[in-house]
Design a protein that fits this description.
This protein is α+β, with helices and mostly antiparallel strands. It is 40% helix and 19% strand.
Length: 258
C-alpha cells in the first residue's frame, strides 16, 4: 500500500472514526500518502458532479522582499500548462467542456486550487490537476502574459471598496510585518522593479515553487462518485509523485519543534 489510512478522530478503544451528521449518506476516509500529502476522500454515489481542492500552506506572507505578489503570480502560472499536459490553460478548457469550473485564490498563508466537473470526466481532470504540483511548465512564453493577467486583476480590485480598505489597513500596519506587503502584485512589482534591479522574475518564480511547494504542507480533498477504495487508488496513482524535498521537510520539522 502507498498510504497510511487514518480517520479524523480516535475513539476510546483506539479505533478511528469520522464524525458526520446522521442524515449524511456519504462515506469519508482520511489518508496520508508516503510523500506526506494529507487527503480527505469523499464518496457520494448519488452525485452528478465530482470535485477536488488542493490547499498549499504558503501565501503572500512568503513573498520575497521586493517581489510582492510572487505567490499570487505562481498561482496563475500553475494553471498555464504542465509537462504532461502542455496545452495552454488545458484544465480550464477541459472542465469547461465537461460541465465544470475551476479557480484558485491566494491568501496570506495559503493558496487554494479547486475544480468541479461531470462525473464521467473526473479521472482525466484530476490527472491534469495533479500535474500542477508535479511538473508545471512555468513557461517563459507565458510569463509576461500572466503578469499582465495579475496586473489586470489588480486594476479591477482598485474599484472594490473592501479591497481598498484592506490595502489601507496593510499600508498602516508595521512595515516589518508581512501583513504590510502588497499581496496581489502588479506590473510594477513583478516586472518593472525586478527588471530595473536585474532580477529574472521567472528564475525567482521557479525558485519560489521549488522552495515552498512541498507535499508535506499540502492538503487535498477529493469528492467523487466511486467507492472509497477506487478513489483512493486513483489518488495514490496521481499524487504520490509530488515531492517533499529533504531540506524542506527538515525545515518543517524544525519549525514544529520551535
Amino acid at each position: 500500500m502507498a498510504v497510511e489510512t487514518e480517520n479524523a478522530t480516535a475513539t476510546a478503544d483506539g479505533s478511528d472514526t469520522i464524525l458526520k451528521a446522521r442524515t449524511d449518506k456519504r462515506e469519508y476516509r482520511r489518508i496520508v500518502l508516503k510523500n506526506s500529502l494529507e487527503v480527505l476522500l469523499i464518496s457520494d454515489p448519488e452525485t452528478d458532479k465530482c470535485a477536488a481542492s488542493m490547499n498549499v500552506s504558503v501565501g503572500s506572507f512568503s513573498d520575497p522582499q521586493g517581489l510582492e505578489g510572487l505567490a499570487h503570480f505562481l498561482e496563475h502560472m500553475l494553471f498555464y500548462a504542465s509537462e504532461k499536459f502542455p496545452e495552454e490553460h488545458g484544465l480550464f478548457k477541459y472542465v469547461n467542456e465537461h460541465g465544470g469550473s475551476s479557480n484558485a485564490f491566494t491568501s496570506t498563508e495559503d493558496t487554494n486550487y479547486h475544480f468541479d466537473i461531470n462525473t464521467d470526466s473526473f479521472d482525466e481532470a484530476l490527472d491534469r490537476f495533479a500535474q500542477f504540483f508535479i511538473k508545471p511548465l512555468l513557461s517563459a512564453d507565458a510569463t509576461m502574459r500572466e503578469i499582465k493577467a495579475v496586473d489586470s486583476e489588480n486594476k479591477k480590485n482598485l474599484l472594490i471598496d473592501s479591497r481598498r480598505m484592506r490595502q489601507l489597513q496593510k499600508h498602516l500596519s508595521r512595515e516589518d510585518h508581512p501583513y504590510h506587503k502588497f499581496s496581489t502584485g502588479n506590473m510594477d512589482t513583478l516586472h518593472v522593479q525586478p527588471e530595473a534591479k536585474g532580477i529574472d522574475i521567472r528564475s525567482e518564480l521557479i525558485k519560489f515553487y521549488d522552495d515552498h511547494y512541498s507535499a508535506n504542507i499540502m492538503h487535498l480533498v477529493v469528492y467523487g462518485k466511486e467507492n472509497l477504495d477506487k478513489t483512493q487508488g486513483l489518488v495514490e496513482e496521481l499524487f504520490q509523485e509530488i515531492e517533499t524535498p529533504t531540506r524542506v521537510f527538515l525545515d518543517f520539522l524544525v519549525s514544529r519543534v520551535l
